[in-house]
């Protein structure tokens, strides 16, 4: 059980959300935005997160949108992962999200919740990184839309009182060749040792990674190396692996050496699939 | 706007076709409320972390870990617990196929499999495995459980 009590609000519009936040903030209450809530509940139960008030974003229509609009695909931040998989507007995203948690949990975990996760994996980011996604946020200072890399880089840079409402991509990315691979230690469900999402745009490979270093990333340097057809594939892979932008994770799930080995195999599989 | 201040409050919960009253805090999980307030102890308190599936219930027909739901957020939803399923073909199949050993995981498995059969009456092995991987059985009765599910799917096909 969650030992501490909190207030709960489920507003029905963005404006109502901002007004509630302002009132609570003026009373110096610690406010958490709540989407699927799976992480909030599990962390609160073991006293690793605390809130005086919780604002549930699921009642806001913009946060539960799931549609194609003109040339863009719009994903509401409070849409749960199975809804995204079943709608299959962006097949790479569907394939990638299928690898997160288990089927029943995916009926509660939301895309926005995954992007805001305190855990380092945030695998839902990978297809959005290769598709140059934009994220829309609202807060006291109004709304902003930015490339996903500007808001969810090594850490989330959402401002105080700001909450994610939608993620959008250009619809053309949904038609490109794609591949998502996840390797775990033992069973299919678990934290990644290596997780990638890749697609081919204009005959160039785009690829994003999770489980390798302490944040999900996409690297233009690695992509340039992998796309250098003047070199044999295994040489490209070795060079690319040496350019990981942070120390390789070395923990109880897998050593750094083993992750490197698995990453090399995964890249080989990806290159073979996508290049033919 | 739905809201609830600190402290306990009386709410209506729609469960198994009835509307029942429960006294809850905002921080109470659905699992707590079902078991401790409403006496519906079919959903089991095991990992409390969304890993084992023993607490699975249906929310508007979709399986969810009740340990990962706040009661307050489920006020306007239709909840089905194992107590709401009686003498279904699936439950008979679990008995016929010896898919029950200690029985602790059984409610969670049946609820999840029931939802699977309703949504995918022609589910293939891959779909069955994907859905059922949400539930753990320490007695490792997985094969019998899968056979029970497939029996019902086959019978559904035959109809």
- Order of SSEs of chain B, N→C? EEEHEEEHHHH
Structural class of chain A: alpha+beta
Quote the distance from N terminus to C terminus of chain A: 52 Å
| Radius of gyration over C-alpha positions of chain B, nearest whole angstrom | 16 Å
Low-confidence stretches of chain A: none
Anisotropy-based shape of chain A: globular
Q: Which strand order does the major sheet of chain B show? A: 3-2-6-4-5
In the predicted model, the low-confidence regions of chain B spanning at least 5 consecutive residues are: none
For the sheet with most strands of chain A, the description reads: 5 strands, antiparallel
> Could you describe the largest sheet of chain B, including whether it forms a barrel?
5 strands, mixed
Mean residue pLDDT of chain A? 96
Oligomeric state of shown chains: heterodimer
N- and C-termini, Cα separation of chain B = 45 Å
N to C succession of SSEs of chain A: EHEHEEEHHHHEEHEEEEEHHH
Strand percentage of chain A lies at 15-25%
Instruction: Count up the helices of chain B.
Output: 5
Radius of gyration of chain A over alpha carbons?
19 Å
Which geometry of chain B do the CA atoms define? elongated
Overall mean pLDDT of chain B = 95
Tell me about this structure:
The complex is a heterodimer of chains A (276) and B (159). By secondary structure, chain A is of the alpha+beta class. Chain A has ten helices and twelve strands. In chain A, the strands form three sheets. In chain A, strands 4-5-8-6-7 form a five-stranded antiparallel sheet. In chain A, helix 3 packs antiparallel against helix 4 (91-97) and helix 9 packs across helix 10. Chain A is globular and about 60 Å long. Chain A starts with 6 loop residues before the first strand and ends with a helix. The mean pLDDT of chain A is 96. In chain B, strand 2 (9-15) and strand 3 form a beta hairpin. In chain B, helix 2 (89-96) packs across helix 5 (142-158). Chain B is of the alpha+beta class and 159 residues long. Chain B has a five-stranded mixed sheet, sandwiched between helices. The relative contact order of chain B is 0.15. The N and C termini of chain B lie far apart (45 Å). Chain B has five helices and six strands. Classes of the chains: A alpha+beta (276), B alpha+beta (159). The A-B interface holds A 1-12, 16, 20, 37-38, 41-42, 44-45, 54, 56, 58-59, 82, 98, 101-105, 107-108, 187-189 and B 1-7, 25-29, 32, 48-50, 53, 56, 59, 62-65, 67-70, 72-73, 112, 130-131, 133-135.
């Amino acid at each position: 059980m969650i030992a501490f009590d909190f207030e709960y609000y489920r507003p029905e519009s963005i404006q109502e959300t901002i007004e509630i936040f302002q009132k609570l903030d003026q009373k110096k209450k610690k406010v958490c935005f709540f989407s699927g809530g799976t992480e909030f509940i599990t962390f609160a139960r073991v006293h690793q997160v605390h809130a005086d008030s919780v604002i549930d974003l699921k009642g806001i229509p913009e946060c539960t949108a799931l549609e194609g609009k003109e040339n863009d695909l719009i994903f509401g931040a409070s849409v749960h992962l199975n809804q995204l998989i079943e709608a299959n507007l962006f097949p790479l995203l569907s394939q990638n999200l299928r690898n997160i948690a288990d089927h029943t949990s995916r009926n509660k975990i939301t895309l926005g919740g995954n992007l805001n996760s305190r855990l380092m994996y945030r695998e839902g980011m990978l297809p959005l990184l290769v598709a140059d996604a934009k994220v829309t946020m609202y807060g006291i200072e109004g709304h902003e839309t930015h490339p996903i890399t500007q808001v969810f880089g090594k850490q989330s840079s959402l401002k105080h009182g700001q909450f994610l409402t939608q993620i959008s991509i250009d619809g053309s990315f949904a038609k490109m060749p794609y591949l998502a691979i996840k390797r775990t230690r033992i069973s299919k469900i678990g934290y990644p040792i290596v997780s990638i999402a890749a697609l081919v745009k204009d005959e160039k490979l785009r690829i994003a990674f999770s489980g390798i270093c302490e944040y999900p990333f996409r690297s233009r340097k690695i992509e340039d190396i992998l796309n250098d057809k003047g070199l044999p594939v295994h040489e490209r892979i070795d060079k690319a692996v040496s350019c990981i932008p942070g120390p390789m994770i070395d923990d109880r799930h897998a050593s750094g050496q083993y992750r490197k080995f698995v990453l090399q195999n995964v890249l080989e599989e990806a290159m073979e699939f996508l290049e033919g | 706007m739905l809201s609830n201040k600190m402290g306990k409050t009386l709410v209506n919960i729609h469960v198994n076709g009835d509307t029942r009253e429960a006294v809850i805090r905002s921080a109470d999980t659905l699992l707590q409320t079902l078991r401790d307030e409403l006496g519906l102890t079919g959903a089991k308190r095991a990992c409390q972390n969304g890993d084992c599936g023993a607490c699975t219930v249906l929310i508007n027909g979709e399986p969810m870990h009740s340990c990962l739901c706040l009661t307050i957020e489920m006020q306007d939803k239709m909840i089905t617990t194992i107590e709401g399923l009686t003498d279904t073909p699936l439950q008979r199949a679990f008995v016929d196929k010896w898919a029950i050993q200690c029985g602790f995981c059984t409610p969670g498995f049946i609820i999840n499999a029931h939802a699977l059969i309703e949504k995918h009456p022609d589910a293939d092995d891959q779909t069955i495995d994907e859905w059922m991987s949400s539930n753990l059985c320490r007695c490792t009765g997985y094969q019998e459980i899968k056979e029970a599910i497939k029996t019902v799917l086959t019978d559904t096909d035959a109809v």
